[in-house]
Design a protein that fits this description.
The structure holds two protein chains of two kinds. Chain A is mostly helical. Helices cover about 75% and strands about 0% of the residues of chain A. The chains are: A mainly alpha, B mainly alpha. Chain B: Keywords: Cell membrane, Membrane, Transmembrane, Transmembrane helix, Transport.
Chain lengths: ~270, ~300
């Protein structure tokens, strides 16, 4: 057993290397002075190291604007989604009111439909509203999501009833119970909702591609995509990719355990 | 008169009391229901209406009945897009599952450092398609400067066209998706593996089963619900593929990477045919709905380990 366990590291390390190499190419590529990669990758180590690629990108004032745009259209929905997941999760898990289950499962069913179905009607709606090329179409529809509500609801259903009853006897209302008991107890699942929302909003391409039309309104995904198609300069492209990757990487580092838990949770009930 | 008055106050009192009791429901659920109606329910119904319209982005919309649907039936490019998407799924689903399961098994074996390996395999899942496509486009450039071609030269293999070849481009895109997604497949399988009781293996080992038998007789069949779930979610994902086709090949060469969603985007926002693009959205919906029905039908039958 011990011996065989040691052998599993050979393929494990091998595959892990394959996974790391693209990211290493990005990291090295971004600091080397190469418009087109040198034919022999081992010669990369003798290439001149430079920060020119980064200064080029950052002088391209739009890039900073893209990062700011991405931040705006990510951070606001993330906090909104965390809040609404918590409060709606509480309502659907613990409160009784007419049509509760019908409302919940209708929402579930409709929001689970493929999002591509929404692109065109929303485009027409948002044109009418005058929202095209503003932050609104990227923020307003994203303030809550059914998956987050579902997570929190599942979690709160497992919390013992005694907690709530004890608080009610002490005269606490719903708001006190929600803010003082349910919310603190549900921190891990709310963090899961937040991390998922961050990654999906930061990385989204199709929605902003359609709803933003001028360069200065692009989020970094669309901006970088436009850069990739016109540059053809390896170093600059890798520097841009690296800069847009860093926020997701940091979120990933800090919240990795929530991701893994959340993925398992979403799949296995 | 006074009696009536009395009952009136008691009614409004009741309403107020009821409101107080359910205040949190009214204050938060009602606005969200309105939001749901405006941004989800209405657009979904509206998009069905749009399919019966000639709706250019600029200019007047015009009712044309079933013309868009009929146009779809005879649109060879639309069928090619569907076929490309099916082909993409064939290249993508089984390798994603196999790699995910393989990684989960390896991590389950080598417990030491499993957190680091899980992190490494999961990293592409959280990285945007744009970033990965940026790297991929240099890896699979169909020229001498393509990094994979450079590598192949060292083994004496000729320059491959990769992204500029209509035979290879879709396979390269599938490779990118496998790389991006198999980390989450791994997590599903890892969770599944951990729920299989160790006693099953011990009992089988006493009966003299080797590792190969252990895998095929215990592990693989007990993971059946996971296989099924993963197969369905990866196939749903594969029908929605867009980003890499848009970023790396723009649907080409020779339409070989024009997927359903790419074609939808192209029809709607390049050819400015919103009505027709809505038909494509519905076709996509029917396919995914069918897949979800299969999932609902079979995923209910869960294997009980206990």
């Amino acid at each position: 057993m011990q011996k065989s366990a040691r052998w599993t590291y050979v393929p494990l390390v091998g595959i892990a290397l394959c996974f790391v190499i693209p990211f290493l190419i990005m990291a090295f590529g971004s600091i080397l002075k190469m418009r087109i990669p040198t034919s022999n990758p081992f010669l990369w180590f003798s290439e001149e190291i430079t920060i020119e690629n980064f200064t080029y990108i950052l002088k391209n004032a739009e890039f900073i604007r893209w990062i700011i745009n991405s931040t705006i259209i990510t951070v606001i929905p993330v906090f909104a989604q965390m809040f609404f997941a918590a409060v709606l999760g509480y309502i659907f898990a613990k409160k009784e009111f007419p049509f509760k289950n019908i409302i919940f499962w209708t929402m579930m069913a409709v929001i689970m439909l493929p999002s591509q179905l929404l692109i065109i009607p929303r485009y027409i709606m948002f044109s009418e509203f005058g929202w095209i090329n503003t932050y609104l179409p990227l923020i307003v529809p994203e303030i809550w999501g059914i998956l987050g509500v579902f997570f929190v609801r599942q979690y709160m259903q497992t919390l013992p009833k005694d907690l709530e009853e004890a608080a009610r006897i002490d005269g606490a209302g719903d708001f006190t119970i929600f803010f003082k008991i349910m919310l603190p107890l549900s921190k891990p699942v709310i963090a899961t909702v937040g991390t998922f929302a961050f990654i999906s909003n930061w990385n989204d391409l199709l929605t902003p591609l359609i709803f933003t039309t001028s360069q200065d309104m692009y989020p970094v995904t669309v901006g970088l995509a436009s850069l990739l198609t016109k540059e053809g300069n390896f170093g600059v492209e890798m520097a841009g990719s690296l800069l847009s990757f860093i926020p997701t990487f940091l979120i990933f580092l800090f919240f990795q355990r929530y991701f893994v838990k959340g993925i398992a949770l979403s799949g296995l009930k | 008169m006074p009696l009536q008055n009395h009952s009136k106050t008691s009614f409004s009192k009741k309403v107020i009391l009821n409101f107080k009791k359910h205040a949190i429901v009214y204050i938060f659920l009602v606005p969200i229901l309105i939001h749901f109606a405006i941004f989800h329910l209405y657009p979904i119904l509206f998009s069905l209406y749009i399919t019966f319209m000639k709706w250019p982005i600029i200019g007047e919309a015009e009712f044309i009945g079933l013309d868009n649907w009929i146009a779809f039936l005879s649109d060879e490019l639309a069928w090619k897009a569907i076929w490309n998407t099916i082909l993409f799924s064939l290249y993508y689903i089984v390798p994603t599952m196999a790699l995910g399961l393989g990684l989960a098994l390896l991590i389950n074996q080598g417990k030491k450092g499993s957190a680091i390996f899980k992190g490494i395999f999961f990293l592409p899942v959280v990285t945007s398609f744009v970033v990965i496509s940026g790297i991929w486009s240099w890896l699979f450039k169909g020229t001498e400067s393509g990094l994979v071609n450079v590598l192949l030269h060292n083994f004496g293999i000729d320059t491959q066209l990769f992204l500029s070849s209509s035979a290879q481009a879709l396979i390269v895109l599938a490779g990118l998706s496998i790389f991006k997604v198999c980390g989450s497949t791994m997590i599903y399988y890892y969770a599944g593996l951990q729920s299989i009781p160790e006693e099953y293996y011990e009992a089988a080992r006493i009966d003299g089963a080797n590792r190969w038998k252990l895998f095929w007789k215990i592990t693989f069949p007990l993971l059946l619900p996971i296989h099924f779930y993963v197969a369905i979610i990866t196939s749903i994902g594969s029908f929605q593929i867009f980003d890499s086709a848009f970023l790396l090949t723009s649907g080409g060469p020779n339409y070989s990477t024009t997927t359903i969603v790419y074609y939808l985007y192209h029809q709607g926002f390049t050819s400015l045919r919103l009505g027709y693009a809505s038909v494509l959205a519905y076709v996509l919906f029917f396919i995914i709905f069918g897949l979800s029905l299969i999932q609902k039908r079979y995923f209910g039958k869960e294997v009980d380990y206990k």
